[in-house]
Amino acid sequence: MSSIQDEIRIAIHAIWIRRWLALAVAWTVCILGWLFVAQIPSKYESRARIAVQNSQILPDGMTNGQPNDMDSVDRVRQTLISAINLQKVVRGTDLASTVSSDADVAARVSSLAQAIKIENQQDTIFQLTVTQSSPKLAQQVAQKLIDIFVESNLVGDRNNTNQSLAFLDKQLNDRQKQLEIAEARRAQYQNQFLGGLPGTGSVADRIGLARSQMAQVDSDLAAAQSSFAAVQGQLAGTPRTVSEGGGVAVSPARARLAAIQGQLSDARARGYTENHPDVVALKNQLSAAQAAVRAEPAGGAAGGQPNPLYMSLQSMAAEKQSQLASLKIRKSQLQNDLDRLNASLSGDPEAVAAQGANDRDYQVLKDSYDQLLRQREQVALRGQAQNQTDAMRFTLIDPPTYSRAPTAPNRMLLLSMVFAAGLGLGIGSAFALSKLRQTFTTPQSLQRTMGLPVIGAIGEVVTRGQATARAQRMKLFLGGTAALGGAYVMVLAIELLQRGMAA
Question: Which is higher by pLDDT, 365 or 351?
């Protein structure tokens, strides 16, 4: 422990001997450092916060395809610091007084782009930060940027709408010309190859439609036949006349014949074929019953009145028979149309293929034209909405601030660091010089270094004149050190004064 204390005393003594060097180095470093810090230009920041919110009045399907509010903000942000907008800022603020040529404007634009920062704070809120050499200029630039921010968005949206309408109008005109050509080609083919064929569309479409109609007619015909057979069965089982007292004037042979006819009609209505065993048996019974009726003496059932039910069934049967005839005629017509279409398809397949290609081209152009027309109507409606309302609403939350103190550099800290560096370098230089010109402060250090015993030490004898001179030099040294401290306090006071004047 004593050796460490000795080393500390030796170092302090060595520095003290060379204290004038330390003081000179400290003064030099402090003066040069303070001058350098004074030359650093001050930077002032102006900040503003803006909220952006879409005021959409159209349905989702008719908007500009923007999923959220920040898409528009990002789009404006990308164009905000463009060269054209920054030139507007330079010429619209006090920066205009610092430029005299296009080269100066370009230089200002380049430096201004580095001094502007836009960042999102929340989903719909962003902060604009502008850094300039004076608080007034920073505030002016920030306000100008906000004005351009609003103007570029509103005007940009309307310009985009006009450009979209112009593009869609051009595309519609082109599609309309192509559609007219396709229509003329299609009409020419229709007149040349399909003028006498039934139906509309291509040959394949007409054949498909005819087959579909034929299937429907077959289904209707089967239903009509079944219904007609059922009415006939009921008609066969119903007597023509009734007795005057309300009873049925029917002979037993005729009643049996009517019952067998009803059973046979019912079997056919169920779909039984003529070879079905039940149908064959009923036919045999029917033949026997008809023979019995023919053998019955005439007038056996006379004396009755006409049966109203029989007459109603007769009318219904006539109606069903008329429907059957109409369906058979319709089936015959459809079959003729199918035969003609199939003959056309097999007779000239190349013409049929060309007609199909024409129809496909026409349909593609028609769909494209209709889609462009819908898009054009949507864009026009959106443009009208933008003319009446703002597409985006801007709310200035915090206006551009006026900075009271520079944000950079921190001169108070830099001046203090220069003062500390001056003291440190002064003491360090004195200590380094003591190592280069080493002396022995105590007998013990001499003995350790030489390795020889020290017999004794002779103290310094100072005369009265030397003591007076030393006291005078000590006062000068202390005065120089106090002056350095006073200079440090003075530069701090000057910095505070400048801040107050700037504010």
Answer: 365
